[in-house]
Amino acid sequence: RARASQRTSLIGVTPLPDMRSLAQCSARRVRAATGARCQATVAGARSWVDHKPDTDFPLQNLPFGVFSCGRNGARCATAIGDYAVDLSALANAGLFAGLPFDARAVFQRPTLNAFMSLNRPAWRATRARLTELLAAGADGKLAGDKDLRGAVLRPLGEVTMHLPAEIGDYTDFYSSKEHATNVGTMFRGPDNALQPNWLHLPVGYHGRASSVVVSGTPLVRPRGQLQADNDDESKGSVYGPSRLLDIELEIGAFLGGSAPQLGRPITMAEAEDLIFGLVVLNDWSSRDIQKWEYVPLGPFGSKNFGTTISPWVVTLDALEPYRCETSAVKQDDPVPLEYLRDPNYSSYDVALEVDLTTKEGSTTTISKSNFRHMYWNVKQQLVHHSVTGCNMKPGDLLGSGTISGTSPGSFGSMLELTWRGRDEIKLSDGGVRKFLQDQDTINLRGFCLGGGERPRIGFGDCSGQILPAGAY
Question: Residue 213 in contact with residue 461, Cβ under 8 Å?
Fold first, then answer.
């Protein structure tokens, strides 16, 4: 449901107070704001807002995003069940009066950057207050006011979702050992699958922030230089549309907080508090453009034509009950350098699925993976990104890299699923794919499975359709 106006102008919006000063609010005030409210976030709590048991957005999730509807401009929101919850409307009604920042100034913005610029205690205080307002039997100021409910709760089917943040910089990593081993085996053989540096540092490259789009935005098949003869590089290149268009199943991390200034690296102890939350991410890739261009500096045009993200940012606090071992379990061969050692080395048990829908409407789940298949986790990626003194800013986006499991059905790219085009992906309507065709729609989904007292926590859709080359 994306519209063309994904990047809303900041012109005409009341200037914000200094975010750094807001982020440095007293610890006593934050503790007062969270206090007993945090007890409402117990796993078994339910909302007075009706929703299906398997919703992506139960009370324990409360992700953050940006939406618009009708004539009203884009503004900040959370989600509960099948509804977007207008945070600016709650602030205008005075229901955020106890928060340790100016909620009206922050939530009337058309991006989450101002909120991201605060610190983790402020984010937690906000989720605690939302829990208090939305939990059954808690604060009745919203539940008991019919007119206010109508202004605050907007059906998700009637709103347009936007990019959650103005993204300053986007960096993509290459951190799933299973994926890196698969790709290395294809091109260099099993004995030389991983490059010598891979187990020593999180490999990454700088992507293109301007072409990051929200779920639902169609993307045009890229054109570029292709190797004229696949077996003979000396014959040069030809110009044309990519024939080997692919997906990459990833998780993206949005940064927030007050990171160190230029020149001072982020420490492992600081890293988690600077991660605002996670989204599902598809780093669309043209394998034939990539093949010709990547030596010696890596991907360029083959990956800069589009990256799709899910619109709701799920916080690390919501994901904490699903923290788990990585598929590597530990890093001991070799042991990382000291600055990269994470004393709580782990990932999150987020199930990931890839659906391919043909232009005729037939849908096939072509891959099932999990975010636990990470050798280098998000904290390590962030710490390494800043080790040279690179300064990070709220709204910056880090891509995990393609997340592949150990079995063929869990591979996170079509390059792997077809083993470089050797095999075919069988579709439910009897068709096959090796790479994407025009009018194919890809939807990536991420969710933590519920069980016992733990509810399902989801990310929503990360969807995009491929349009023919030249369909501007």
Answer: no
- pLDDT of 8 > 50? The answer is no
Residue 110: cis peptide before it, omega within 30 degrees of 0: no
Q: Tally Cβ neighbours within 10 Å of residue 309.
A: 30
Q: Of 179, 373, 384, 385, which residue is the catalytic one?
A: 179
The model's pTM: 0.91
How far from the centroid of its chain's Cα atoms is residue 128's Cα?
A: 22
Instruction: Provide the token pair at 296.
Output: 């010696």
Other CB atoms within a 10 A radius of the CB of residue 10 amount to 13
Distance CA 47, CA 142 (A): 12
Q: Across the strands, what pairs with 77?
A: 65, 86
Instruction: Tell me the per-residue pLDDT of 363-382, one tens digit each, with 9 for 90 and over.
Output: 999 999 999 999 999 999 99
Q: Are 367 and 409 in contact (CB under 8 A)?
A: yes
51 is catalytic: no
Helices (H), 69-119: 87-92, 103-107, 113-116
What does the alpha-carbon distance between residue 195 and residue 225 come to, in Å, rounded to a whole number? 26
Residue 368 to residues 345, 403, 466: CA-CA distances in angstroms?
23, 10, 21
